[in-house]
Amino acid sequence: MSFYPSYLLCLCLGVLCVVFVSFWNAQWRGGFAWDGTGKQFNWHPVFMVTGLVVLYGNAAVLYRVPLTWGQNKTPWKLVHAGTLLLALILSVLGLCAVFDFHNAQNTPNVYSLHSWIGICTVALFTSQWVVGFAAFLLPWSPVELRKLIKPTHVWMGAIILVLSIISCISGINEKLFFSLKGNVNGTQPYAKLPSEALFANSLGVLIVVFGLVVLYILSNQGWQRPEPNHDGEGYRPLQHEES
Ligand code: HEM
């Protein structure tokens, strides 16, 4: 199968995830503000899905785009690191939104399973970015170190995406249980599957499918960027290359 249909699917699913998470919060959760109310919380899912899933996933598959193969790798490394930095900034803003909201409402912090997995995901992502920057972008980092780190960097990259998706699914589920309580706040209960629940469940499915497409692209050996073999034996896959 050729690369581009999968890549197009990845791009379309990414856009749909951002549209769905924004529409859910605008349509059913009262929209957005930065004032310590539920409207501030609403930035949390939007920033987390956009940063840690959509931007992250697209940055992960960047080197697989054949259009980039014949070119110098350094600018693409900068695009990869820059997109991931933007993803990291959005995730930190997403965390600020929810911590600030909890503090304003006197709600305890980091008590749920969702928050534990979420915190670990962002911590792993931050360390992955710092180590990746130091090892692959700083010109004085030794080639041997790059060779050593690369397989772990690739493996950790996929693991962080999986953890982000688990965080999003558990977060969506938790939010629906908190919000759709039937008679208590004038909404229909989650178990009756009101339109909001149907929509947010579909967002969860979209996020999972997006993640599977990214992992499929990453796992396809034939779509790895060919790198010059310095022994003069032609090309060998990215994973065995030094940077
Ligand atoms: C990668 C994605 C995500 C990460 C890393 C993440 C992380 C976190 C963290 C660390 C907290 C705890 C904040 C505190 O204790 O003050 C939290 C809270 C929360 N998040 Fe997320 N989140 C993510 C996505 C989502 C999504 C998509 C939703 C859907 C609405 C969501 C819903 C919630 C809810 C309802 C809370 C408040 C209750 C609680 O602390 O568990 N999260 N999130």
UniProtKB/TrEMBL annotation:
Topology of the protein relative to the lipid bilayer: Multi-pass membrane protein
Membrane-crossing residue ranges in chain numbering: 7-26, 46-66, 78-101, 113-140, 152-172, 198-218
Keyword presence, Transit peptide: no
E.C. number(s) listed in UniProt: 7.2.1.3
Domain Cytochrome b561 intervals: 9-219
Entry GO CC: late endosome membrane; lysosomal membrane
Cofactor(s) the record lists: heme b
Main location: membrane
Known catalytic reactions: Fe(3+)(out) + L-ascorbate(in) = monodehydro-L-ascorbate radical(in) + Fe(2+)(out) + H(+)
Keyword line: Electron transport, Endosome, Glycoprotein, Heme, Iron, Lysosome, Membrane, Metal-binding, Oxidoreductase, Translocase, Transmembrane, Transmembrane helix, Transport
Entry keyword Cytoplasm: no
Pfam families: Cytochrom_B561 (PF03188)
Compartments, as annotated in UniProt: Late endosome membrane; Lysosome membrane
MF (Gene Ontology): metal ion binding; transmembrane ascorbate ferrireductase activity
Signal peptide bounds: none
PANTHER family recorded: CYTOCHROME B561-RELATED, LYSOSOMAL MEMBRANE ASCORBATE-DEPENDENT FERRIREDUCTASE CYB561A3
Subunit structure: Homodimer.
Job description of the protein: Transmembrane reductase that uses ascorbate as an electron donor in the cytoplasm and transfers electrons across membranes to reduce iron cations Fe(3+) into Fe(2+) in the lumen of the late endosome and lysosome. Reduced iron can then be extruded from the late endosome and lysosome to the cytoplasm by divalent metal-specific transporters. It is therefore most probably involved in endosomal and lysosomal cellular iron homeostasis.
Annotated protein name in UniProt: Lysosomal membrane ascorbate-dependent ferrireductase CYB561A3
Lineage start: Eukaryota, Metazoa, Chordata, Craniata, Vertebrata
